[in-house]
Amino acid sequence: MSKTLIKLIVIRLLLSLILFSAQSQAQTISLDETLTIFYQRNLDLIAARYNVDQALAESIAATAIPNPTVSFQIGELSSSNLNKGASATGCNHSANISCGPAEYYTFSQLIEVAGKRGLREQSSNFASQAAESDFRDALRILTNLVRIQYYQLLQAQKYRELTQEIVEHYQVLSQANKLRLSSGDISESDFLRVKMEAMRAETDLDNAQTVVITAQTDLAVVLRWPEKTLQFEAQELWPEPKNLPINNEDSLIAQALQNRPDLQANQLRAEQADKQLDLAQRLKYPDVTVTVGYARDPSNNALNSGFVGLSVPLPLFYQYKGETDKAQVNLSQNRLLAEQTVLSIRKDIISALATWKSADKIVQRFKTGLLTDALTIRKSAELAYSKGATSVLDFIEAQRSYKNIMHDYYTAEINRANAYYDLEKALGTETTAPHQHLDSQ
């Protein structure tokens, strides 16, 4: 036996041991458990949550009553004559005695008129609700992203299992072929052809293991790399939708228009813009500042006195037309965005529903005939080859056909699962989706 062949055998054994060790330490994780980890760790969701907190903080600031102003003044100060010799009743008229400075205490309060504060409160409430809808929309989109990564891992696992099965199948067949070759039942060329296919299957298994590791890594990135991520194995459960009116397109569209958080956010912002327009139109009604005060002036005949005042800015030269026009444009833009979102939702539902129906039909086609046919052809070809009733090429072709059919079937199952969750994403609601085990073949 050559040194090169010995090295290849050793490498193959080491890879097999690594694969066995990885599989033996694998931790099966369900989709719900994966989503739980994601919700706890994902930074994007945390950032989206901060937007909600910011909106709530702005709502508190918008509804606050303006603070009053208190002021104190000292007047009639002079370094040479501090009301000396004042003729006021409360003063000593001596030229050498000071009556003291005048003291003024004032209290001012801004009073908003025309319901401006109420409009700001309503506007900020709409903004807070819109931020919460944005958060739920981020949750809707990112949840679907996690599901896609999860089923990519499951798809890679199923491909690895398929290649593992084929490798083991060829190993058994190769042992039988050695006996047949020694007894002269098959030619050496047929023996070598089967051996080459067995080595190709082992190469496919190595590549499949690499794909699994890559899928685990991609999922780890989405989950922010929790402990033992590279030992996660996706659970073989597939969504089986129930109570979903897939034959009633209008019902699905109505459900989506009612539940989609992105549409709700746009509609709330349109409501907010409407209140902001109303507020801008009321800016031309000036607010009033009320001032009350107390004065103590020793140099005045009225030693102690009080006063009341009002101040009002007069909108003579500028009547806030710029703010009104800007608010009108903002309202039109938000209403247009809401209308565009409605059209986008209709398109999403129609596209997702068509994709789901197509993917489901493909899977059913496999389950109702193709899988059984591929397995039957494989067994028949193997039996015929073992009895010398068919050529090695026909046998190899049957093996490849079986592999391709199973490969396509697993792809169809993954596409069907993704299509279902895409439809759920388009609906904007968490529908009840019991899971079923993958049919064992």
Please describe what this structure looks like:
The protein is α+β, with helices and mostly antiparallel strands. It has one domain: Outer membrane efflux proteins (OEP). The protein is 66% helix and 10% strand. It is built from nine helices and eight strands. The protein has helices spanning 3-24, 31-41, 43-62, 116-183, 188-222, 249-259, 261-281, 321-386, 392-427, and strands at residues 27-29, 69-75, 102-111, 232-234, 237-239, 288-296, 304-311, 435-437. The strands form three sheets. The protein has a four-stranded antiparallel beta sheet, with no helix packed on it. A hairpin with a 7-residue loop joins β6 (288-296) and β7. α4 (116-183) packs antiparallel against α9 (392-427) and α8 runs antiparallel to α9 (392-427). The chain is elongated. The model is unreliable at 1-24 (pLDDT under 50).
